[in-house]
Structures are given as C-alpha cells and as structure tokens.
From TrEMBL:
Topological type in the membrane: Multi-pass membrane protein
GO cellular component, one term: plasma membrane
Lineage, opening ranks: Bacteria, Pseudomonadati, Pseudomonadota, Alphaproteobacteria, Hyphomicrobiales
One Pfam entry name: BPD_transp_1
Alphabetical list of Gene3D superfamilies matching this protein: MetI-like
Matching PROSITE patterns: ABC_TM1
Protein name per UniProt: Putative spermidine/putrescine transport system permease protein
Compartment(s): Cell membrane
Stretches that traverse the bilayer: 20-41, 78-102, 122-143, 155-184, 204-226, 233-253, 265-287
InterPro entries in the cross-refs: MetI-like, MetI-like_sf
Main subcellular localisation: membrane
Any one GO biological process: transmembrane transport
Record organism: Rhizobium rhizoryzae
Length: 296
C-alpha cells in the first residue's frame, strides 16, 4: 500500500491593506500641514535668516528695541484685559443659565449664539463696532442728539486701548461661555447637598467647594482667551489701522511688501507671537486636563 504525500497547503498571502477609516482624516491632515505646519516652519526658519539666506540672530535681537517691546506690551495688556473681562462676564452669564433660575429654553439659543459670535471677527466685526460706537456710530449719534452726551468728550475712543478691548469682548465672552458651561454642568448636586448638610452657606459652598474645583477650568480658559486676543490680527488692523501700535499691526507693516518693510523682521515678530501664544495654549491644555480629572 502506497501512501501519497499531499502537497503542503500554501500559507495565505497577506495583502497589505490601507485602513479605509483613515481616509476621512486625510483632508484635515492635508489642511493642517499646508496651512499650519509649513507656514509655521517658514516663519521659524525666516526669523533666523538674513535676506541673503545666511543664519543670523539679528532679527531676534531687533525684537528688543524700545518700539517693538512697547508694541508687545500693549498687545499683552489688551489680551490680559479682554481675557479678564471675558472670563468674568462669561462666567456669570453661564452660571446664570446653568445654575441660576433662568428658564431652560434660554440655554439653547445662548449657546448657539455663542458658537457663532466666538468666531465673528475680522473686518465684519470692526465694521459693526464702527457703525455702532464709532465717531458717527448709531449709539454715538443717538446719545449726542437725544441726551447731549458726547462720548468723545468723556474720553471714549473706539480707536484706542479700551476701544479695541471692548471690541475683542464680543468674541471673548461667548468663547468663555462655551468652555465654562460644561465645567459648570460637572458640578455634582451631591457636593452642594453635602455642604448644606454640614451647615455651609451658599457663599461658603462657592468659596470652599465650587470655586476650587472650577479654578483650573477658569484659569485655563483665561490662558486660551489671552492667546485668542493676542493672535487676533484682522480685527485690530481693520479697526485701528496704524493708530494703535500693537504687534499684529507692526507685523503687517513689515510683510506687506513695500520698500520700507523687512520680511525677516516680520518673521521674527510672528515667531515671538507664536512663542507667547504657544505658552498660553500649553497652560490651557495642562489646566484643562487637570479640570477634567476633577470632573470625572
């Protein structure tokens, strides 16, 4: 009896297949690389180059001239002021809707408006404020004709530090509302009930329980609002032009291409803005992660 040897079964050939579920991310990845990563790398490299392409630290050293340092100082003060008032007003608005006695139907329209207003900036926002509070704005003329109140005589000027800060609040307050609302939703009712059982007043509950829990979220949002205002370019240029010396306006003047411009100094200015906003965003990410741990 002969035994026939069966040929060994061939191992299945594994074909390399690209995971199709990653295809949906490719457009976003391409967008990030083309419009964020590559321009950022160009800015960083250009900040350390001379016009002839040689490596130099002259552009970075020029950032410490009095005029540029003054521009950074004004930009930082505007960012701090708009972030502070944006956090303060936005927190009370969100707390009134989430924890206050306002009707629940207000929450939906408020969050919808906040989502739109937080992204409303640039030329449209500047035009809206000029048409409302500018020298010939609706409110300015109305107060002058009906009540004899001259905003200019009282010291208000839209094309100034406080005018630009007020304009920034239009998108800073809604952004604060959007970010702090989930944190307020995360305050458990059991915490308030436990504090009440132990004899704590409403003020003591907020001072000893709620605010310590919300502090990382509030400080993180403050850092995000600071970065948001510091990096705002189109609104500042459209509203104030060259009347207010802030970093975005100096940056625009250096890279717009006229004979007096220095593109590589503009790269250095942009590099400084990247450093400042990067630090602020890092603070936001760290504090946001800490806040989320508390809310779990």
């Amino acid at each position: 009896m002969t035994t026939q040897l069966q040929p060994a079964a061939k191992a299945p050939v594994k074909r390399l297949r690209l995971p199709l579920h990653w295809l949906g991310v490719l457009p976003f990845a391409a967008f990030v690389v083309l419009f964020m990563v590559l321009p950022t790398l160009k800015i960083v490299v250009g900040a350390f180059q001379r016009p002839d392409g040689s490596i130099s630290l002259d552009n970075i050293a020029n950032l410490f001239t009095p005029s540029i340092m003054a521009a950074y100082g004004i930009s930082i003060r505007i960012s701090v002021a708009s972030a502070f008032f944006g956090c303060l007003i936005g927190f009370f608005v969100a707390a009134a809707v989430v924890l206050g006695g306002l009707p629940r139907w207000i929450r939906g329209p408020l969050l919808t408006f906040s989502g739109v207003a937080s992204n409303f900036a640039g030329v449209p926002l500047a035009f809206a404020f000029l048409a409302t509070l500018g020298p010939l704005g609706i409110i300015t003329v109305f107060l002058q004709q009906q009540f004899g109140i001259n905003l200019r005589a009282l010291g208000f000027n839209l094309l100034s530090f406080w005018g630009l800060t007020l304009t920034y609040l239009f998108f800073q307050i809604p952004l604060m509302i959007l970010i702090i609302t989930p944190a307020l939703d995360g305050l458990k009712k059991e915490w308030r009930e436990a504090a009440s059982i132990l004899g704590a007043t409403n003020a003591q509950y907020w001072r000893m329980v709620a605010l310590p829990i919300l502090t990382p979220a509030i400080l993180g949002t403050f850092a995000l609002l600071f970065a948001n205002a510091f990096g705002a370019v189109a609104t500042a240029i459209a509203l104030t032009g060259s009347s207010l010396s802030i970093v975005p306006i100096l940056l625009f003047a250096q890279i717009r291409g006229d004979v007096l411009g220095d593109p590589h100094l503009g790269y250095a200015l942009a590099f400084g803005m990247i450093v400042v906003t990067g630090v602020a965003n890092t603070v936001y990410i760290v504090l946001r992660a800490r806040s989320e741990r508390w809310m779990k």
